[in-house]
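## tool: complex_structure
## caller: assistant
## args:
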Amino acid sequence: MSTTTPTRPPAATNAVRQRPGDRIFKGVATASGLAILVILAGVAAFLLYQAYPALVAPAADIAGGEGFWKYTAELVFGTALSAALALVIGAPLGVGIALFITHYAPRKLAAPLGYVIDLLAAIPSIVYGLWGVFVFAPALVPIYAWLADNLGWLPLFAGPVSSGRTMLTAGLVLAVMILPVITALSREVFRQTPTLQQEAALALGATRWEMVKYAVIPYGKSGVVAASMLGLGRALGETMAVAAVLSVAGGVTFNLISTQNPGTIAANIALQFPESTGLGVNLLVATGLVLFVITFLVNFAARAIVARTSKG
Amino acid sequence: MSKRIDVSDLNIYYGDFLAVEGVSMAIEPRSVTAFIGPSGCGKSTFLRSLNRMHEVIPGARVEGKVVMDGQDLYGSDIDPVDVRRTVGMVFQRPNPFPTMSIAENVLAGARLNSKRMRKSEADDLVESSLQGANLWNEVKDRLDRPGAGLSGGQQQRLCIARAIAVKPQVLLMDEPCSALDPISTLAIEDLIQKLKSDYTIVIVTHNMQQASRVSDMTAFFNIAGTGKPGKLIEMSDTASIFSNPSQKATEDYVSGRFG
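## result:
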């Protein structure tokens, strides 16, 4: 800030003099804080206003003909399923990479590996989508076929397998996309584990893994939860990659390797928007409002979990 | 259940930097040996080499022999994890595991290496270790409370309880009272007197009164200048180090002329 001047701590006099640097900085900080509230309120107001017609429209006018909630429920299910898959696959992998970088990798390997992971975050999501469709999905088909043959009795792998554009592929692509944020944040908290705690464990005769279990993981737990929730937020809202990868047929199913999948809210908006008019647009905005609320709830839950674990 | 340690010609390095040079000494069982000397003279580094905690720092290594019970602790077939279970350590600042309760902290070391324990066994170990660390009466009603909620002096005694719960032969203490108030310091010093009937105790201290109060033998380390390695100047029974040292440097140090 070029306009601020260094200020001394206030002198112990009764007359508190307002220094210009303090006033300017306070003004800038307050304005920034208010701006974010105004933007958020603006987005919420827009969503509510545009969504209202779809919320009150008669069921027959909504696409599908069974009303707004039926239309949205499938998309919410698809969104939640793909994001949950991403989290279940991405979070352990991200935490594992972070532990490897901070506590196992030789230093010459750790730094480049960290850069590579950070680079993953810089890849545009449409690139992930294209990679998912043209490279990843076809490569997974034999694996899906094997799963359907051998584990087909599980509803998850019922099949039939026709292409790789399945819910599981979408979940895997999303997992790769949320890896950088989970890895980067976990790495930072693991790195900050006090040496004193690590040495306490080692001096008791802990092996490397036991030291990690006693000192590093408890210390980083709330950070890992926060990182996972940020990743989950990204997975919930991801649009282009899912729109490209997932083959949508509607319906609610846990069958992860067929092409008959529910869509996700964000991808559905991207796919339907160009051809929508009138109430159709209102309907898409209303699903967006639902996603907005879900993301809010996820963040709320994350805060609650972080607050609880950091207390314990 | 305490053992003698014989150190011969030990050189301790951080990378290429020689931090401590040519130390040979015998540490007697069931006694307290104190290391004194100015800051940076390598006494803590030397202490950490006795249970192979020195090599935890990247690039750190050791040349020479540390023999306990006829076995070289740096022998190629020796697992440092086993060494640390035999030679326990208490650090400068109390470091109980913050997420664990008092009882879990005591059991932390004993539970390592996937050892299973029955509930009654665990309860007995918690009580005997806390008794051994003179802490039982103060915490017996709140064993399930977090260890980090105790006062600094109590935390340090909790760390001692945690160390002795593993049933080591030797207990190393790296300035265990430097972060504590005088009353807590006194409690730890009393405890050291009690523990020496069972353990070989080695303590690093900056406080010469403390060394003269608690130790049977005293070793004086010194350093010729910045960047030079620390060396053992002399080691003798505590009374003669403080009243009649054989080296001029020792006399200057214990009489407060430098350091």
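## assistant note: Chain B is about 35% helix and 25% strand. Strands of chain B lie at 5-14, 17-27, 32-36, 60-68, 71-72, 87-90, 170-174, 200-204, 217-223, 230-237. Handing back to user.
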